[in-house]
């Protein structure tokens, strides 16, 4: 492995390595105003939620890498400690990127990037009409992480109002992840689109007390077919199927075919059953995968 001491890297090189490796990152499209009411709109990928009660988001208008100067967003927040965090989707990603251009102070990025400002209800900065989720925030604290090039400034923004487009809600008024079509920032010019083609679910282990990978039988744990992800799925069950459940499942047509065609060849039988189990795991059918594996 390439081993690098961060102290030996220039800010540009260090930023390059970090932004490619720590990804994807959600994008905070923050609108702010200065004390004279001039509007600024800028995207930040050093952004995430850090608390639910109180609901707090954190983003970082870092000092510019080339000369350590501060950004207009930070200067505005220090004057007027309010902001609106607008969530970025694929339909607005190009305009969001355009807003990152370093226009002169006082220039309204809404006008430059062609997005629509709408008045907020509590916060002074406007919201982005095209964003399906908008958070009106009060800035509780700004934490400076340094004075040098690339140093962050953590903005702790407490969400006071949420505005959510009905177009992305399900029947229970919850956000439907598949409808949101989010984008995320990677390194360099790279972005990721989060849509139905690349969404997947992982069962939360907090719902059960999983048996753990260490409790998986040796022959399964050391399978030449199953991956580490597969073992994680298997270790996230609370209990194994019963002997009767395994016996009943062995009578299914798919399993019987494997057993009948591998009579007298235990090695091939085990491989075929493990391949079948992997297919089931990739489909999220963990209980059936366990039954398949325990037949062998």
Structural summary, described in words:
The chain starts with 10 loop residues before the first helix and ends with a helix. The chain has a seven-stranded antiparallel sheet with strand order 3-2-6-9-10-5-4, with helices on one face. The chain has a three-stranded antiparallel sheet with strand order 1-11-12, with no helix packed on it. The mean pLDDT is 93. It has eleven helices and twelve strands. It has 296 residues and is α+β, with helices and mostly antiparallel strands. Helix 8 crosses helix 11 (286-295) and helix 10 packs antiparallel against helix 11 (286-295).
Helix content: 25-40%
Gap from first CA to last CA: 39 Å
Backbone shape = elongated
Number of strands: 12
Give the count of helical stretches: 11
Quick synopsis:
The chain is an alpha+beta fold and 296 residues long.
Which secondary structure elements does this structure contain, and how are they paired or packed?
Layout (H helix, E strand, L loop, with lengths): L10 H11 L3 E2 L1 E6 L5 E6 L2 E6 L2 E5 L12 H8 L2 E6 L5 H6 L10 H5 L3 E2 L8 E2 L4 E12 L8 E12 L12 H4 L1 E4 L5 E4 L23 H4 L6 H7 L8 H7 L3 H9 L4 H17 L3 H10 L1
Antiparallel strand pairs: 1-11, 2-3, 2-6, 4-5, 5-10, 6-9, 7-8, 9-10, 11-12
Helix pairs in contact: 8-11, 10-11
